[in-house]
Amino acid sequence: MSYEWILFDLDETLFDFKMSEARALAYVISSLNLDPEDAGIIDCYNRINKGLWKELEQGLINSTDLKVERFRRFCQEQKLEEDAQIVSDRYIQSLSEHSYVFEGALELLQYLKDNGYRIAAVTNGIKQVQFGRLNRSALKDFFEAVIVSEDTGFQKPQPGIFEHAFTQIGSNEKEKMLMVGDSLTSDIQGGNNIGIDTCWYNPERLPNPTGIVPTYEIHKLDELKSVLQRGKAKART
What we know:
Layout: E1 5-8, H1 17-31, H2 39-57, H3 63-77, H4 84-96, H5 105-114, E2 118-123, H6 127-135, E3 145-148, H7 149-152, H8 159-169, E4 177-181, H9 184-194, E5 197-201, E6 216-218, H10 224-236
Helix pairs in contact: 1-4, 2-3, 3-4, 4-6
């Protein structure tokens, strides 16, 4: 298969979101007069946040409500009488200011551009955060379109976010598209749901017990080049 469009997930595929999140969360926890190095406090937030993002993928909550609800629940569990909206705004602003690109991401996008591929991002997340971090990075000029779930009303793996992406990039030739991402349940399942090929970025070589089957699997970003070269070779035969 010879692809024209490479659709990338952002968080934990091209960007080290965990590092951005850790820095922003430490700032917010400190602002609440809590210990930012207390593992129990961090685990409390992560448990609440992870659960709500799963609900978002399932369409049980929208991103606007998620932003505040996680801190409402967090403050409730920590017995804090804080305005969850204010805490959320503080966190979102800090998160949008922390941008860390994975090693090899810039070189990969440059290779794709130099070889005639067109690049777009399809990402679950909050518009302010995603564009804030992207615009602070060296990757910002490579994307012809950036589709964020908060803008569309849909999130991966729902087909709606991909249909919105097709409109944004001006193409619905699914056979010429490849979705690349680290999440089986959002990126790979999303690509499967809409009928485009997928590439699971699995740097930690995690097992796949889900039954969700990617078209390809890579363990380093650089390995995407070989996937695309093989696709071009097959397309010529």
